[in-house]
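tmp note - Protein THEMIS2 isoform X1
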Amino acid sequence: MEPVSLQDFVCALDLASLPRVLRVCSGVYFQGSIYEICGNECCLSTGDLIKVIQVCLQKVVCKNPETGQTVEISPNFPGRFTPLTGPQSYRTLEELLSAATQRSRKLPIGFMSTHRISTEARVVPRDQPLLLEDVEAYHGTYRARCVLDTETQQFILHLPLSQKGPFWEWEPGAPQPLLQALQDPALSDRLFTCSTLPWRSLILRPQYELQAIMHMRRTVVKIPSTLEVDVEDVTASSQHIHFIQPLLLSEVLARGGPFPMPTEILETPGGPPIFLGPWVGSLQKGQRLCIHGLASPPWRILVSAKGRKVPRHFMVSGAYQGKLRRRPREFLTACDLLGALQPGQPLRVVATKDCEGEWVESPGFTSLAVGDRLEVLRSGQAQGAQGQDIDVLVCQRLSDQAEEEAEEEYEEVEGEDQILLPLYVSSSFVEEMSDNRRYSLEDLMAQFSLPCEVKVVAKESSHPADPLPSFPGLRLEEKIMEPFLVVSLDSNPEMCFEIPPRWLDLTVVETEGQPGQPAGTPPVATVEEVTDAFYYTLRQLPVFENQPPPPRPPKSQGLGGQKKQSGKNKSAQASQVSELPQASLLPKPKMKTLPQSAKDSSHTYSKVSAHTKGLRHIKSITKDPGNDEHDYEEILETFRNIL
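out:
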């Protein structure tokens, strides 16, 4: 096949013969062509091969051959087009008949007039097709016997050969829709007329878009047919040529198979690694992989290890088969306690740190000592020491009845009381629990909410190098729903792991399957350690964004402001607490009568508390700008009282 322009090739193309392989040829004015579509630059150089897989009609440009004017119409244009036989018109019917005779054209001859024709029988509109069937003699003159074919019936008209036009000759047949007129190869160079367009004749210039595959290009290339490039059809001699089309793992995931899919890595994403597994170093250009399919189940758990100086983080598959035992959770603030509270699930904790502050002075609030047992009830609002409403946690102080029975020196506790803790309080609590059951990861997720503290008591049998049992505690932080692909190395088929295309989108190419591959999918590593950077990237996912930040404590006031506020509090009879009875009705906690050793420790704690209160008083005095003259005297007096 001789080189032709891309436009001519497409106009003469039979769509049923696709795909076609083209070679870019050099022309008089062409040494290569660069064009840009949708921001993607593509270069077609001399000798390049492209495989045309689809041709789409974009628009049609109608051109007036007399004036050069153009108009664009869409592929679904409703008008009908009648082909004309030549590019010229005739002034009379006699000229039209003479030209047809010279071309050995036989009757009947189709023609039309660009003006309205009036006869005794009827009026023929402009551009109305007529068929000249014969020439008859009538009273010494010749006239043309013509047929006017309407949608309902036919009319016979007799027109003198001297009838003035201008007239255009057309091919006999019904007017055709736009697409049919363009697809007829015999009409590729014809003039057309259309009653819905204002011109007597027009040229149709379709513009197509070719979708093609190029060697080593990942996406399908879209080439306009108007590109000034010559091509040669080499389909017959290119049957052995295989066009390598790269794929992203995300595209493999979206395509959904077929699996297993043997591939080869062409490119790896830049940036530091996100996993720390032994297979990470093997993901290099040229490495052959086997993609086995979609991992199941589709959820993962983000896990942080506890008890080590350097924190480590893991992503654990939902298919993990190790056995876990719940551990008491640790909470650093009252806000953490509220986040862990679940409807229908009691939450009991023990304070592991003394806790008191300015909020203790308000009714209903109290300090906490090491060993205090609480049951978290609900959230609420209360009036703080400075008069503003603050969010609080309503808790029930629990008695140590079991210990009182064991220690005869303990006095009987009269009852339990409710206390209030501001959500901003920083303390330390440990959950009370006596659950010795062994759970699978799936059962644990079904019965308990996250975060959750666990200890792996039995490692997964199919994963001998399971690192999780070596840690004294694990924190299950969040459930992540993300599709993974199961992948194995061609050089080491037993090393099977899971890759998330969202964060590790390799560029691969399909290859021929290698003989000797094991049947089925080998055991998959269900625990993968992640880097710190990737861990914090995961913490920014939407599932973590729903967690509200902890509340801020109220701004502290100077000594003068505190005195004014304390005066207001004394005049108030009770604090108004939402969802609670009046704070004045809450009983004050009673001190227990302990043995001598307990009393000694109690005195020790009291001394520490006294020192703490004294230092806090000193701090508030130094911050009061209104008592500068007496600061040093008050501080000295305070130290004397302490000593």
